What does this fold into?
Amino acid sequence: MTGSLIVVGTGPGKADLMTPATAAALERATDLVGYGPYLDRIPVTRTDQCRHASDNRVELDRARHALSLAASGRQVVVVSGGDPGVFAMASAVFEAIEAGEPGWRTLDIRVEPGVTAMLAAAAEVGAPLGGDFCAISLSDNLKAWTTVERRLKAAAEGDFVIALYNPASKARPHQLGQAFDLLRAIKAAGTPVLFVRAAGTPDAKVVTTTLAAADGALADMRTLVIVGASATRQIGRWIYTPRGEPGTRS
Ligand code: SAH
It folds into this structure.
């Protein structure tokens, strides 16, 4: 039997935000590989399915393990949260292939898209990503903090809406505050800042504030932070960014 490997994302957390294609891939798999808490979110539908849970920090090992299972003929699904290509396992799988066994390049590999955190977070508050936006991970596990600073500065100078993934963790409690300080030097004090925790789940919680008042301590590992562009505004309880600039065609 020929093996296969599908990389999926389970969405932000609520079952009905997982795509039907991802649910079907999970159902057909002989082996599920992923970070333990993500695997725990997937209901057991078959007793003959093997689950290989691993720690959060070992993405490359996990990817290699998944590839060798697929090479041995198993139907493997690698599980991420959100979308598998956004700061997640799909890149780890291709990194492992690039540095790994030549035979892995001809495996049957597929990536299924998922609902990423910034889309679920945006939908909780209105349409803050309605104009040009970018996404930056604040984690410096895999890149230098000076790189994060350079990108934040460029995003602020380009007047993008900025979605911040991995804004804080126990090991990195101060970086979000440093990021806000950097942005305050470039962007207006009244720029809307949103902290959206557990977006797209029944526990979703939103804090809306301004860049001047934004407190990095409000974010944890389940929070997505959105910093507005100059056009981002509040109407009633909603926050949105217009699609175009004033004075252009609508
Ligand atoms: N692949 C994932 C992102 C992994 S990085 C995706 O596409 O969503 C992990 C970061 O994603 C977290 O630190 C947090 O910033 C964000 N995140 C993931 N799920 C979230 C949720 N339900 N609500 C808010 N932020 C979330």
Remarks:
- The pocket of S-adenosyl-L-homocysteine is lined by residues 9, 12-13, 80-83, 86-88, 116-117, 120-121, 165-167, 196, 198-201, 221-224 (CB under 6 Å).
- The radius of gyration is 20 Å.
